Amino acid sequence: MSTSTHRLRLGLEDLLEQPLRTVPVEIAPGADSLEVRLRYDRRQATVDLGCEGPAGWRGWSGGARDHFVIAAGTATPGYLPGPLEPGLWHVQLGLHQLPLEPVDIHVEVLTPATTPVPAEPDPPPAAATPRASARDLPAPAGLRWYAGDFHAHSTHSDGEQSLSELATLATGNGLDFLAVTEHNTISHLPHLPRVGARHDITLLPGQEVTTPTGHANAIGDIGWVDFRRRPDHWLEQVEADGGILSINHPLQEDHAWQHRMRRLPPALELWHVTWFLEPTATAPWTLLSRWPEGTILLGGSDYHHPRHGYVPGTPVTWVAAEDRSAEALLEGVRAGRTAITRLPIPQAPALVRLDDQLVAVDADAAVLRDVAGRSRLLHGDRVVIDDRWQGPYRLEAPDGTLLAISP
């Protein structure tokens, strides 16, 4: 057995100089498992944890864990199992928050690992809830509007529920699909087809590329996106591999988007769950002047745990697609066939495109507004809006509460 302990003493000045630090670890030939333990005063600091091997990235748990195990057949959620290549490995430390006065950070590395990886809890029973797509919103010929959420987390990053538990919540809320977007890791991707099939929901592969100055979702089966590189590279890689890059919660408190890019991504998470904290806010609309016409608009609950008081599908992103396979849904997103509603419940006001028409459904007494500032009080359960209006559009309740969005 081999054990090594590394002590770092770091403060705010070190964070500002180099926010991502590495601890080199030599893995001898024949080692079958690796265990890393991180220790520091959490009352004073927040340090993210990750790992890279000689053959590439092996995982990231951010500030959610202070310990991980990697072995040939198993690994802590957030990390990729597999053989340990001999040679130089690097424990990754993200200095998220440090005080002015330096604090001690201890990294202990053990080979082989001495702590077993806990087994996944038994999956909950699959829900038999009717899906929101049964509402059959008006759609172009050959297509149907499917209800989903493009932003959620499990125990593979900083969420508190397993993939099965997450899928149960999503189906229980009537969703047809859910994008699982873990921070800086893709350890969840191999499990998505099995879990999705068990719960009869399409689980879209995703990664939330996470940096101190902004987050973006890379949606699609595209491999790992290196958050240490510039966002322009993220966009190039994602598009080359057939995925979609979307800027997340661009106005959210200390997670707002601050990166500059040569070209903005095609998609924008315009309606993030934080909009529910101020449902009459208009600040997000100011973003649209920066994004090109035709930007794909998405919504995301950013679900982490039930204590937040909401479930996946808050808000709902609808995609008009041929079916609810991952390929068809992503094709619908690329084509800009999206709409967002406050909730997936039947009779929730909706605003959808039907070929060249914009149709408001179950929106009697709602106020329609367009990006040019025009507004109109709607009358009736189905209202067709003529093409003189200019999108994106939104529906508001009489008190200004946001109800629905359409490109």
From TrEMBL:
State the SUPFAM superfamilies in the record: PHP domain-like
Cite a single GO MF annotation.
5'-3' DNA exonuclease activity
Q: Where is the segment annotated Disordered?
A: 114-133
Q: Where is the composition biased (Pro residues)?
A: 118-127
**Could you tell me the superkingdom of the organism this chain comes from?**
Bacteria
Per the database record, which ranges form the Polymerase/histidinol phosphatase N-terminal domain?
A: 148-213
> What name has this protein been given in UniProt?
CehA/McbA family metallohydrolase
What species is this protein from? Candidatus Brachybacterium merdavium
Its taxonomic placement starts with: Bacteria, Bacillati, Actinomycetota, Actinomycetes, Micrococcales
